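G., the chain you wanted modeled:
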Amino acid sequence: MVKWVFCILILSSITFAAISGNIGGVSDAALRESNNAVTLALGLAGAICLWSGVMRIAQKAGITALLATALTPLLKRLFKGLNPKSKAMQYIVLNLTANLLGLGNASTPFGIAAMKELELEQERKQVQHPKHNTKTTSSANDNMVLFVVMNTASLQLIPTTVAALRLKNGSANPMEILPAVWVVSAITLVATIIIAKLLSRIKKGTP
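Predicted structure as tokens:
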């Protein structure tokens, strides 16, 4: 869907530029912003690589396992029927931890791995209880849906990527947005969890 939106925007820009006789301006802007995109990507690479390395060290040192233990009481209530010691839960914790540090790009591999493990968990349950499970493997279960909304509306303690962007663009205090980020992300996360749980109950209540 997104690719079609971008295609429409690009074609519209070219069409209106041709009609207005400013096609040269579109070409210049495309080349200029392409160079800016590369510069921006290289500028963000340092911060992302740093925190990705820190996350890997934390995983090897067992810090994420300790964090998983601390989060287990809450996550057990949220992710019904999921083993706290399973690979799926471990990847969920890694994803949530990366999001807490504001590393959206670094959390993506953990999120993909978590979804794969959640799908495997669903397949195992279907094999063990075929009569009590009428869902197909292609459909997302409640835990998958909940994880997606938690990943999308994540709580960020350290908005690393946004701070790096602000610093690159000349901000004297790139971390001054912390209070606003904490409040907004917390409200968004709680709201999405509540909505996901309510919709799950409504779905189960329908015949």
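The mean pLDDT is 79.

Shout if anything looks off.
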